[in-house]
Amino acid sequence: MLLKRIIALMLFAGLAFACKSWEEVVEPEARKESRSIENFGNNWEFRRLENLKEKGTGWEKVNIPHSVKIEPLVVNDQWQGTALYRKTFEVSNLNDHKWFIHFEGVMQEAQVTINGFLVKTHKGGFLPFTVDATPFLEEGENNIEVEVKNVDDPTIPPGKALGELDFNMYGGIYRNVHLIKKNKVYITDAVNAAVEGGGGIYFHTATATKKVATGKLTVHVQNGSQREQSIKLQYSLLTRDGDINRFYSSSRGPGHAVVEAGETASLSLNFKIENPLLWSVDEPNLYTLTVDILADDKLVDTQSLKVGLREIALSGEAFFLNGEELFINGTNRHQEYPYIGYALSDEAQYRDAYKIKQAGFNFVRLSHYPHATAFLKACDELGLLVMNAIPGWQFFEEGEFEENAIRDIREMAKRDRNHPSVVFWENSLNESGMTEEFMERANEVLKAELPYPDTFTAGWIDHPSYDLFIPARQHAKPPLYWNGYNTPNRPY
């Protein structure tokens, strides 16, 4: 027994020593101070303004996620109009940090005002946006107001008027909001950075077998300080059982850059992991990816997320996951709940994914728009394959609508590219008559954002620019084109 204790103590000491070089650079307190993310959803005030159907309301205290109105169990005529949200909050050490407010979803047009200054106007209700609040904040108490409109707007996908749309949309700040504090040298937000094929953190697995997995991590960094910085990338992949793989950058490699004040850089490191725990529908193994950014050998930012090692392919008439053919058995999903509409908690998002998995499905198509990040995380954890989709339904217009649809493709790809569950990208406007130019451009944009051979596009029209054809047979009556349809342009 004593010998076992001595051996165990030696093994523990060896593990601590092996970690020492990493922890000497990244101490727990430094990691804690490099970034903070606070739930910004509590203690808001809310009121609806008058519309054609009812008078306005007084201010009431609410928490976010929030729907502008509790609707009947069966609803086909939900509230539309303008609503206001406001909140008082405090910040300290203002000059030492950058402050961002991240909205996961606001339906469907938002104007954000901080301390009386209009900071941002955002159109689109299904994808996130981030506000750089730093220039508008004051030390101590601050005020934020968000004006939210969910009136019909043909320039915002899906574009169709609510009374003609075949699914419901509900107003409000209906997804999570976070207040993020960062140092002046920091990892950017992928959507906000607007770097084609980059921005934020991009983790991609190139090959994955039971023997070895390979891939690449790319991280986009902003130097918001007043001087040049020598910036390095290092990261780790941790299994649920505590096994860890670490990756460091050399002083001259692609994981290191000297960045001028006010400039950005993309840092990258390849990885190779022997005997990996692969992600699959039956064994959805996840790794915790922890990314550390060092400036002059001091930790300045850190971010963690769950990732999976998996390899996907389309070949012949089949889909392959980790080299094995997989029969896809799936369903569609809308993101609404009775009474509260879109304002689901993360737990309710998980419940939906769990029930889909328990029903025997291994695949879910997101109808007909990007769903919450919490739902995708649940699919990652439970082993559900996902077809992601941009907002659209039987509507297309050139001009501003088309440009906003292209923007949705870019932002959906940036937001969701690190989820192992997402295997298909429906960059097609559901059941809509799209132009040849739009379909070709939509695919070019997606492939530019996700520049790897395992990026598979999907469209409801049998157009050669799509990798996957998804005929609209979910309705009782087949679409007219189906009657004369014989052989597809591809085997899948």
Automatic annotation (TrEMBL):
UniProt KW Signal keyword: yes
GO molecular function, one term: hydrolase activity, hydrolyzing O-glycosyl compounds
Domain Glycoside hydrolase family 2 catalytic residues, every copy: 313-439
UniProt GO BP: carbohydrate metabolic process
Domain Glycoside hydrolase family 2 immunoglobulin-like beta-sandwich stretches: 204-310
Pfam families (UniProt xref): Glyco_hydro_2 (PF00703), Glyco_hydro_2_C (PF02836), Glyco_hydro_2_N (PF02837)
Origin: domain of life: Bacteria
InterPro entries cross-referenced by the UniProt entry: Beta-gal/glucu_dom_sf, Galactose-bd-like_sf, GH, GH2_Domain-Containing, Glyco_hydro_2, Glyco_hydro_2_cat, Glyco_hydro_2_N, Ig-like_fold
Residue intervals of the Glycosyl hydrolases family 2 sugar binding domain: 63-182
Segment forming the signal sequence: 1-18
Alphabetical keyword list: Glycosidase, Hydrolase, Signal
Family statement drawn from the similarity comment of this UniProt entry: Belongs to the glycosyl hydrolase 2 family.
Record protein name field: Beta-galactosidase
Species, as recorded: Antarcticibacterium flavum
